[in-house]
Design goal:
Blueprint lengths: L1 E5 H11 L14 E7 L2 E7 L3 E8 L1 E4 L1 E6 H10 L4 E7 L2 E5 L4 E5 L1 E2 L12 E6 L1 H9 L16 E7 L2 E7 L3 E8 L1 E2 L7 E5 H7 L9 E6 L4 E6 L2 E6 L18 E6 H15 L5 E6 L3 E8 L3 E8 L1 E4 L2 E6 H9 L5 E6 L6 E5 L2 E8 L7
Helix pairs in contact: 5-6
Length: about 375
Amino acid sequence: MKINILTSNLQNKLSFVNHAISQKSQLPILLNILLEAKKDKLKISSTDLEIGIELYIPANVEEEGIVTIPAKTFIELINSISEESLTLQTDQDTLKVLSKKTKSVFQTIKGEDFPNLYKEKGEKIATFQAEEMRKDFSEIVFAASVDTTRPALSGVLVKNEADGFLLVATDGYRLSLKHHKATIKNAKNTNQFIIPARVFRELMSIKEESQDIEMFTSRESSQVFFSQGETLLVGRLIEGAFPNYEKIIPSDFSTQVLFEREEMQKAVKICSIFARDSANIIKFSFKKNQIIVSSQSPQVGENTVTIDAVLKGEENEIAFNAHYLHDVLAGIDENEMVFEMTGPLNPGVFKIKEDSSFLHLIMPVRVQG
């Protein structure tokens, strides 16, 4: 292998490749990245066997070849080089990284030993507009569980609809639901699948923001693929049954409150200071024209914040985990929100005003007094 490449192009791409580098693997090859020079491009691949990343960078390829090198050291080196261009050249069992003022030599492992990320991408399912995808998915993924002992809860349910997908994520204590519009293939197909929430988090960090994102699935290999420009993200579909989320979504309410998200976010942040010492509980009291947000700690004290609101229905009270409140308020861009409830022991539902595509449900916390 011998190629010449712009340093900035390599630096920009390596930051994303690093997301799939294994940190503690007992397999030395997973601590490496794969470099493959072919035609006029350099392909870079990484995987931790949960997700995989494959991307292409324009390069002047003098000699084609394939090799793997230690990822952490290589990325740190490339990010430290200020010269405009680099030469990457293999020499027996080493890779030389050459610039005008530096020369570095890496020990390599044969490229043939690197795991295959996939055999084929399978069927194209949908095309997403990148900006809308990032906005809509950010309203969902935070509700997925980080505990992988219940795999289905660590993923996002993706279900075909006539004009896009229904996305649902839950950790058993909260649930986010979003109807996301997309150009889909086989609109009448009722397929549904569970995609690891981590895949969506990585997808939202791809920097090629202007290009559409294409989604593929392969039932044969149980994999999902997201392609944007010269970047491909690979994940493994989660097997198992997703919880019956529909039965916990309330069909009516006795209290409905309209409020401004930014004001509520500030109130929750203030009350979180006292809530930290008292099981992280924040209480809402809904009055005619206001919401009283409060928290208390026997060791520290108590505080309240009052925000303006419009109440329809009964005055009511309910308490939530402060962390869950922070997540939903931070994950939404729109400012006008609606809260609905039927009682202090029933789920509370957050919605966006005049937007039926989104719903977020949180299970309440029982409090004394």
